[in-house]
Write a structure and sequence with these properties.
about 210 residues; TATA-Binding Protein; ten-stranded mixed beta sheet; two-stranded antiparallel sheet; about 25% helix
């Protein structure tokens, strides 16, 4: 049975294997973006009055910026009743941030009823494949699914169909994965990519 060889850490759930002879691969969750929807409009000016530390410049951006120190996240709050949380290092942390702001709003006298509907909109993760990637050859092998314009950007952009994610692939073996909606999709996508690079012989182990 083939296993992933992905190193287990506090930020990621994964499988490990020493049988393949590979160096362990660690996937790091960099950002989890979560949206929350209240079934009511929000009084942005009341929030500004109750929380002087927030940032609101409607002539520049329609959302109010509410920053938390713990967990260290940023909340964008819109008058439509939608909130977007960025900066969370994991799903639990991002959800905790949403609920923390929800409780602060209620405590500050803002009219919010019921709990918000929460869903993950994007997970950003990074990893190092412990080798060098021949991007020119990769483009030749998979040109139809890859954008590679080195004079404009040093990474190849690869859109994977299943799971539906986008990779930035750098020649030094570093990769960035965006667009996942579930943590499991990150690990599956990275393993699929590594297997494909090895099969195409474009990944040279360092």
């Amino acid at each position: 049975m083939r296993r992933s060889g992905i190193k287990h850490n506090t930020k990621a759930r994964s499988a490990t294997s020493n049988m393949s002879g590979r160096k362990p691969l660690t996937i790091q969750i960099q950002n989890v973006v979560i949206s929350a929807t209240f079934n009511q409009p929000l009084d942005i000016y009341a929030i500004v009055k109750a929380f002087p530390h927030v940032e609101y410049r409607p002539e520049v951006f329609p959302g109010l910026v509410f920053r938390l120190k713990k967990p260290k996240t940023t909340m964008l709050i819109f008058k439509t009743g939608k909130m977007v949380c960025t900066g969370g290092k994991g799903e639990d942390e991002a959800r905790k941030a949403i609920l923390t702001v929800f409780r602060k709003l209620k405590k500050g006298g803002i009219n919010v009823t019921g709990k918000p509907e929460i869903r993950i909109t994007n997970i950003v993760a990074s990893a190092t494949l412990n080798g060098f990637i021949d991007l020119d050859r990769l483009y030749s092998e998979m040109g139809g699914r890859i954008i590679f314009e080195p004079e404009q950007f040093p990474a190849a952009i690869y859109r994977m169909e299943s799971p539906s994610v986008v990779f930035l692939i750098f020649s030094n073996g570093k990769i960035v994965c965006v667009g996942a909606k579930k943590g499991e999709d990150i690990y599956k996508a990275v393993e699929n990519l590594r297997r494909r690079l090895e099969e195409s012989e474009v990944l040279t182990r360092s």
